[in-house]
Amino acid sequence: MAERIVLAYSGGLDTSVGIGWLKDATGKDVVALAVDVGQGGEDMEDIRQRALDCGAVESIVVDAKDEFANDYIVPALKANALYQKRYPLVSALSRPLIAKYLASTAHDLGADSVAHGCTGKGNDQVRFEAAVAALAPDLTSIAPVRDLALTRDKAIVYAEERSLPIKQSKKSPYSIDKNVWGRAVETGFLEDPWNAPIEDLYEYTQDPSVDKAADEVVITFDQGVPVAIDGVAHSPLQMVVAMNELAGKHGVGRIDIVEDRLVGIKSREVYEAPAGIALITAHEELENLTLERDQNRYKRTIESQWSELVYDGLWFSGLKRSLDAFIDHTQRYVSGDVRLQLQGGRAVVTGRRSEQSLYDFSLATYDTGDTFDQSLAKGFIDLWSLPSKISARRDLAGE
C-alpha cells in the first residue's frame, strides 16, 4: 500500500485540485477528510463523493457539530472570548477540532502526513499545524497552496484538463469562512479599510437599520453553560442555532474590524456572529451578578489572554489548559437567567436574576431598610488613601 496523506477537505476548488496536486508532488495517496462544524451550504455526502471523483483513495465525513458546540464554543463562551475585544474567534475555534480529526485519522490509517488548503499569509496555517504538532508531533504538515505553488489560475487549468467535477461559478470577490458560531468575510473591496461594508456581504444577519419591533428573550445558564431559551431546554448546539436566528433577525453581531494577524500584518475583516455576541453579552452580565469582585476583575484579564492564545493557534498549549482550569472554577456559581432585548443590531441586557446572586438589596438600597453601616466608610477611606497621602507629603516636601 502506498503511503498516504490526509487532506482537510472543504469541497472547493483549491482542496479538490489539491488531491491530485499532492499525489503528483509526493507520490502518496490522498485521503480526504471533511469535518462538519455547521458551515451549511452543500450536502456533506455530495462533498464526500466529489473528493472521490477528484482522485481521493478514501473520503471521510465527520459530523462534529455537537462536539464543536460542547467542547469549543462553550469554553469560548465561558471565557467571554473576544479577540481585540470584538472578534468571537469564529474561524479560530474550528481549526483545532479539524486538526484533531486530521491527526487521529492519519494515525488510524497509518499516514505520515496531513495537508490543508491555507495560504502562507493567514492565521489558519498556523492554527492547523500548531495543533497537529501538539497532538501528533510525528506527522508532517503540507500546504499545497503555500508549499507546492498551487495558485488559483493553475488550479483552474488543472481542473479543466482533468475534467474534475468542480462547479465553476463566477468567482466571489470575497474569501468566506463560516461555521455555526459565525461567518468571516475578507478580501475584495474590503481590503481598503475606508470602504464601508455593503448589505450583500451578510448572510447570518438581517439589516439592523430596518425598523422592527424588539424581541425579548430570557437565556438560562447553568454553571456558565447556556441551557434554555424562554424556559425551553436546549443543547449547546441548539442554543447557538436558535440564537443565530433570533439575534440575526435584528442584525446583532455584525463586526467590522482591522485585525492584527498572527503573521504580523493587519487585515480588514467583516464578521457576523449573532449568537456569539448575544450569548457573550448575557453570560458576562450574569458573571457581574454572581462573581466576587476581585475574581471578576482578574477574569477579565485572563479572558484577553485566553482569546489571544486561541487566535494564535495554541488551543492545545499548556497555558491554555491552565487558563481553562481557572475559568471553569469561576463558573461554579454562574447560574441564572438574563433577559435580552434584541433590536437594531444590539443585544441589550434588561434583567438578570440568580439564586447565586451576590447582589444584596438591603445593602444596595438608598431607601428605608438600608442595612449598610455608613459610619464605617470614613475610617475605610482614611486607611485606603493612607499610602497616597504619605507619598503626596514626600512629593510636596521635595518640591
TrEMBL record:
Binding positions for ATP?
Answer: A8, Y9, S10, G11, G12, L13, D14, T15, S16, G117
- Per the record, the coiled-coil ranges are none
SUPFAM superfamilies, per database record: Adenine nucleotide alpha hydrolases-like, Argininosuccinate synthetase, C-terminal domain
**Highest taxon of the source?**
Bacteria
Q: What EC number(s) does its UniProt record assign?
A: 6.3.4.5
Q: Which InterPro entries match?
A: Arginosuc_syn_C, Arginosuc_syn_N, Arginosuc_synth, Arginosuc_synth_CS, Arginosuc_synth_type_1_subfam, AS_cat/multimer_dom_body, Rossmann-like_a/b/a_fold
Provide the catalytic activity annotation.
L-citrulline + L-aspartate + ATP = 2-(N(omega)-L-arginino)succinate + AMP + diphosphate + H(+)
Where in or outside the cell? Cytoplasm
Supply the alphabetized keyword list.
Amino-acid biosynthesis, Arginine biosynthesis, ATP-binding, Cytoplasm, Ligase, Nucleotide-binding
The positions making up the signal sequence are: none
| Predominant localisation class | cytoplasm
The UniProt entry's GO CC annotations, sorted and at most eight, read: cytoplasm
* GO MF terms, alphabetically ordered: argininosuccinate synthase activity; ATP binding
Q: Which GO BP annotation is one of this protein's? A: L-arginine biosynthetic process
Q: Where does L-citrulline bind?
A: Y87, N123, R127, S175, E259, Y271
Against CDD domains, the record matches this protein to: ASS
Q: Which PROSITE patterns match?
A: ARGININOSUCCIN_SYN_1, ARGININOSUCCIN_SYN_2
A Pfam family that the UniProt record links to this protein: Arginosuc_syn_C
Limits of the Arginosuccinate synthase-like N-terminal domain: 4-165
Share what the entry says about its subunit structure, partners included.
Homotetramer.
UniProt protein name = Argininosuccinate synthase
Q: Which species expresses this protein natively? A: Cryobacterium tepidiphilum
The major lineage groups are: Bacteria, Bacillati, Actinomycetota, Actinomycetes, Micrococcales
